[in-house]
Amino acid sequence: MTSKPSGAAGAFADWTTRRWLRVGVAATLVVLTVLGSLGGWAMWRTSHITSALVDRRSPALIESMRVEEALVNQETGVRGYGLSGQRDFLQPYAQGVTGERAALERLRPLLTGDGRARADLAEVERLAGTWQERVARPVAAASPAQAAQITAARAAEGKTAFDSLRRAMTRQQAHLEQERTVATRQLRQAVTLRNWVFAVIAALILLVAGLVFEGLRRGVTGPLSRLGSAARDVTQGRFDRSLVGTGPADLRRLASDVESMRLRLVAELRFSEEARGLLDGQAADLKRSNAELEQFAYVASHDLQEPLRKVSSFTQLLQRRYGGQLDDKADQYIGFAVDGANRMQNLINDLLAFSRVGRVHNEQRTVDLESVLSTTLDDLSVAVEETGAEITHDPLPSVLGDTTQLGMLLQNLLSNAIKFRHPDRSPRIHVGAQEAEGIWEFEVRDNGIGIAPEFQEKVFVIFQRLHTKDAYPGTGIGLAMCKKVVEFHGGTIAIDPDNPTGTRVLFTLPALPAPTAATAVPDRETQS
Which residues, in sequence order, are bridge partners of residue 365? Predict the structure, then answer.
């Protein structure tokens, strides 16, 4: 719904927001251009004077003082050497010569374009050269005995020359100080003028801003605010609230479009609520189905234990009692039966353990993985000794989880690394750990036969085997159980596709919160 202003406001009824903005922006740009020109001129003038003062006048005075200091050091060193005959006094003289040259090299460019200052500098350099030629250099180059004679013979001449040099340096510094004072006064005047200009600019900007604000409030922001208020009521759930447009023509059209969108949203919301109800029902059915499937796996594997034990016991009894009494074919059949019963029992035990993950063993507490790994290595000690495996590990942290499940995780990964070893080399297995952004990243790396890239996701699916039972015994549940344990603890597990040799299993576990995190231990590597 839209409404059109009447009365005095009717003259602006056909103005669109773009027209309001064009007029306002054009007027504002004209005013700001004029004000910007005045401000730019004031800033340029202040900057120009400041640059002259900071970059030329003050540095020139400072360098002139450094020249004087260097010459005084030369005079002190030469006089001390001439009186005492000790060459240690020549060190200030040498430093003064170096300092004078450096200061003059910096001072000359600063006086470019200033005739009086250049004349003062030339006079200083002339007098300094005379004193150095007549007194300083001869004394410095002479032996201690000769230096004393030269100093005594030219004492009066040296004093007169250096006094003339001091007066020249004093005049030079007085002129430079005078020029800096003039520049400072000009800078103060420029700053005062700049401040007045900017004060006027600020006042005019405030006036323009007030006019622009009032114009926008009447022509744009007011209608937009009313439209926005109505739209917020709709977003808060009042879908029965109609949107009424006021103000410029384009805002009234916008209100009409938003009203049409509200009506479509009301219709889609009804449909979405119906679909969500169906989805919630399906999610509840799926959750119930998963729970029933898990319970079925547990009950089936548990209830199959007793009859399977009988089959296994009697077939083994049959093998012991009649083994060798029947023909070879009968002994082979009995062996098949015993082997099948044993494999079935192992499969059911693994299936039972798989179904218990997260259901039976679910004691969440702080678990020291160092201790868990030590227990796991003790359990695997026979396999480690038989295969000559070398197992190393980084310092392992403490995490929040279930001790039994984490022990099953490490035992499955390490036993797989030992089982799938390369026939031409002894197993080398490393368990690594590092923390990154509140997550512990673990690795179990070996030098075994490895896993082809196309099977690196398939191995985590239950009952998936890549080799025959004759080549590598097992039920195909180990890595599936590892994945279930890791995901139950809030982590992820995968095979590193870029590992060049053997297999590198990567998995993550959340780190303990900072207040309860285990104290870090020094880096070390243990070997078993």
Answer: 401
pLDDT above 90 for 212: no
Nearest alpha-carbon partner for 398 in 527, 522, 525, 516: 516
Compute the radius of gyration of the chain from its Cα atoms: 48
The count of other CB atoms within 10 Å of the CB of residue 437 is 6
pLDDT higher than threshold 60 for residue 528:
no
Enter the pTM of the model: 0.40
Question: pLDDT per residue over 322-362, tens digit each?
Answer: 666 766 666 666 666 766 666 565 556 655 555 656 555 56
DSSP secondary structure string for all residues of 333-386: HHHHHHHHHHHHHHHHHHHHHHHHBTTTB---EEEEHHHHHHHHHHHTHHHHHH
Rounded to whole angstroms, how far apart are CA atoms 134 and 140? 11
Q: Whole-angstrom Cα distance, residue 452 to residue 114?
A: 83
> Contact at 8 Å (CB) between 504 and 444?
yes
DSSP assignment of 175-192 equals HHHHHHHHHHHHHHHHHH
Task: Return d(Cα 429, Cα 425) in angstroms, integer.
Answer: 12
- Asked whether residue 248 carries a pLDDT value surpassing 90, the answer given is no
Q: Report the alpha-carbon distance of residue 155 to residue 81 in Å, rounded.
A: 13
Distance, CA of 335 to CA of 331 (rounded, Å): 6
Average pLDDT over residues 460-467: 68
pLDDT for 72 beyond 60 = yes
Q: Which of 219, 269, 216, 209 minimizes the C-alpha distance to 239?
A: 269
CA–chain centroid gap for 5, Å, is 55
Ordered alpha helix ranges (H), 236-327: 249-303, 305-322
How many residues make up the chain in this entry?
A: 528
List 504's β-bridge partners, or say none: 445
Write 315-321 long-range contacts (CB < 8 A, 24+). 315/341, 316/341
Both tokens assigned to 331: 């002994």
Which segments of 404-517 are extended strands (E)? 428-436, 439-445, 493-495, 504-510
* Three-state DSSP state, 15: coil
pLDDT tens digits along 146-195: 887 888 888 888 888 888 888 988 988 888 888 888 888 888 888 888 88
Residue 392 parent element (H or E): strand 390-393
* Alpha-carbon gap, residue 101 to 120, rounded angstroms: 17
Strand partners, 519: none
pLDDT tens for 408-441 read 888 888 988 888 888 888 899 999 999 888 899 8
- 511 neighbors 440 (Cβ within 8 angstroms): yes
Are 435 and 398 spatial neighbours (Cβ–Cβ below 8 Å)? Answer: no
